[in-house]
Amino acid sequence: MNNFTYTRVTDVATAIKEVSSDEAAAFIAGGTNLIDLMKENVTRPARLVDITRLPLARIDELPDGGLRLGALVTNADTAYNEQVERRYPLLSRAILAGASAQLRNMATNGGNPMQRTRCYYFYDTATPCNKREPGTGCSAIDGFNRIHAILGTSEQCIAVHPSDMCVALTALEAVVRVTGPQGERAIPFGEFHRLPGDTPHIDNNLRNGEIITAIDLPARGFPDHYAYLKVRDRTSYAFALVSVAAALDMKGGVITEARLALGGVAHKPWRNADAEAMLKGIEATRDHFEAVAFAMLRDAKGFRHNTFKITLAQRAIVRALQHAAGMGNKA
Ligand SMILES: Cc1cc2nc3c(=O)[nH]c(=O)nc-3n(C[C@H](O)[C@H](O)[C@H](O)COP(=O)(O)OP(=O)(O)OC[C@H]3O[C@@H](n4cnc5c(N)ncnc54)[C@H](O)[C@@H]3O)c2cc1C
Ligand code: SF4
């Protein structure tokens, strides 16, 4: 592990100044991902700017009926917040499906979307990896790629984003609020993460020096018809092979609004507008859900060890939609 200096900041303006003025500086919040990356020599910041004392640890109601989740509220406090549990149970379920109780007590809402892929080669500095060292090649494409992407891949990288929370935030159409040297801006959650393309080393659209201050949830939370289904190798403390966030509004057995997002299949949480549109105005039946699942995975392409994910995702979508529609126990 490289030597680094450590600074603790107490206001957002200073935090931005510290990081934007030094290329080798990085924010640290809960440290649950960054410290691992530093120990493995994947990331070598020369300066850590500790943001845990910033006044961003609140959950507040918004005038439009939504909810603002401060960037420094822990994942645990968010999942167990009374308003989140009651109005956005999909988010609560997704967070609690991730990591472990101890990690969720440290991990923050700002750090979760920023966590990096769990591709084995990304962590193994003895192997080529375009995300870690651009231009060196991708060890996963012809290597062991069981956990890798089946949608939105490029010839440069087939990694997936590992978050559970972000899959629910994508389905809920949350908005990421950021502040940087140029001021404040809002990024729709679906536009926050990027596909790998020719720049797999860039995970998201945050600009240099920008800090996530909050994540806003719109008023509509789908509390009556939702499911978060996570399929993984162990039932706890494991990342998703495939996960599904499903949220429906229904009237008399007919679906009036639908959201569907997949985790574990792409470099970002995956939505498909055409597949979602197929759900609107239909009755909840297994046949309909199977057609939607097929459409959602129509463009999927498996690699040597992960083709099973295509069928797995289709089945998981059907099951999550059935649960959301009340055709079975909640996932
Ligand atoms: C063993 C293990 C298992 C896990 N399992 C799961 C799982 O199943 N599902 C899941 O979703 N996650 C899982 N995680 C990941 C965990 O959720 C993340 O590590 C955590 O959410 C990151 O938050 P943090 O506050 O600790 O971020 P840090 O580690 O402090 O920072 C991570 C990155 O975010 C940046 N950052 C932090 N806060 C901000 C901010 N406000 N603005 C801009 N940049 C910021 C940092 O500079 C750094 O680059 C697991 C982690 C571990 C170690
Ligand atoms: S999939 Fe991406 S992260 Fe993994 S080795 Fe290839 S370039 Fe690196």
What does this structure look like?
- The protein is α+β, with helices and mostly antiparallel strands and 331 residues long.
- Helix content is 25%, strand content 19%.
- β10 and β11 (254-263) form a beta hairpin.
- The protein is globular and about 60 Å long.
- The N and C termini lie far apart (41 Å).
- The model has no long low-confidence stretch (mean pLDDT 97).
- Residues 26-34, 36, 51, 71, 75, 98-99, 103, 106-108, 110-112, 114-115, 162-165, 211-212, 239 line the site of flavin-adenine dinucleotide.
- Iron/sulfur cluster (SF4) binds at residues 117, 119, 121-122, 129-131, 138-140, 157-159, 200.
- The neighbouring-strand order within the major sheet is 4-5-8-6-7
What percent of residues adopt helix (DSSP H or I)? Answer: 25-40%
Overall pLDDT confidence? 97
What about the largest sheet?
5 strands, antiparallel
The helix count comes to 11
